[in-house]
Amino acid sequence: MQIRFWGTRGSLPAPLTAADVRAKLVAALTEVQGRSLETPAAVEAFVAGLPFSIRGTFGGDSSCVELIDGENTNHVLCDMGSGARRYGVEMLRRHGPDNPQTYHVFMSHTHWDHIMGFPMFPPAYLPGNRIIIHGCHAEIAGAFHRQHGAPSFPVEFSQLQAAIEFVVLKPDTTTEIAGYQVTPLLQRHSGDSYGYRFEKNGKCVVYSTDSEHRTEQSEEAERFARFFNNADLVIFDAMYSLAEATSVKEDWGHSSNVIGVELCQMANAKRLCLFHHEPTYSDSQIEDVLHKTRRLEEITRAETPLEIITAYDGLTVTL
Ligand SMILES: [Zn+2]
Ligand SMILES: [Zn+2]
After folding, report:
1. pLDDT tens-place string over residues 170-195
2. What global pTM score does this model have?
3. Domain CATH code at residue 257
4. Distance 117 CA to ligand 2 centre (A)
5. The pLDDT of residue 247 is above 70
6. 43 is in which domain, residue-wise?
7. Residue 248 pLDDT level (bands cut at 50, 70, 90)
8. N or C: which end of the chain has fewer CB within 10 A?
9. How much distance in Å is there from the Cα of 39 to the middle of ligand 2?
10. CA 191, chain centre distance (Å)
11. Are residues 185 and 50 in the same domain?
């Protein structure tokens, strides 16, 4: 199983500015410091050695994550944030306009940053495509319809050419969908959100974004530890620092890297992926959170290590 991240920002897309790119160039050239970069190979090796925050970017698109499984011809996605546009363009490039595809989408909730990519999702405009949108909110179809048409968008939902279906799932109930055993779980968030546990062929990934955790509630922590139990990868809402999540931004519906480490350690998960990055954070701030989280994991490690990664637009993880 592979997981590909198409959008990893929280709340709002956050593209780089010209000043951001310039600062990366200045930082990179400052690092050259008398080195010889006379061949393309030497340049490549130098760039590869730079910190990710200088040579790359965590990206600016909002939540959209793809599950890839070689045996499955159906496409599986979590959330339809602005990252869904680039994903849809890639699907069209790969399959062409005359080769209908089936897409299964699992929606954490219908806050705007999680549905805003759908009007710009090219497969929705092509007849023959089938898009099945799964979620636990009864009003999920209404949220998708509302963002199409006047006064928000030039195309009405009814004008979309693909066959679009909405399926309401039951939390805490495992269903086989597109070859995966899928279990949704209710999460603490304004208007509720749901995490999804996907299992197939002995591999497990949990998508758990837009989810606030109360550190003082051990029963709730145990509920999530069971949900994350032995997962190969937990994609976790780590939007805030612990200090923010438990003080000024309490009740804002998001969590922190520290709580992610605690829950994954309780659950004996193998890998934690920090996700739903705060839109005001620069690449170096996100990288700094990653380094601090790795240090925290080292000093709190019990027996088996927990690998910590941070999501960026374009990252592929193989389980
Ligand atoms: Zn969100
Ligand atoms: Zn939300």
Report:
1. 999 999 999 999 999 999 999 999 99
2. 0.95
3. 3.60.15.10
4. 15
5. no
6. 18-55
7. low
8. C
9. 48
10. 19
11. no
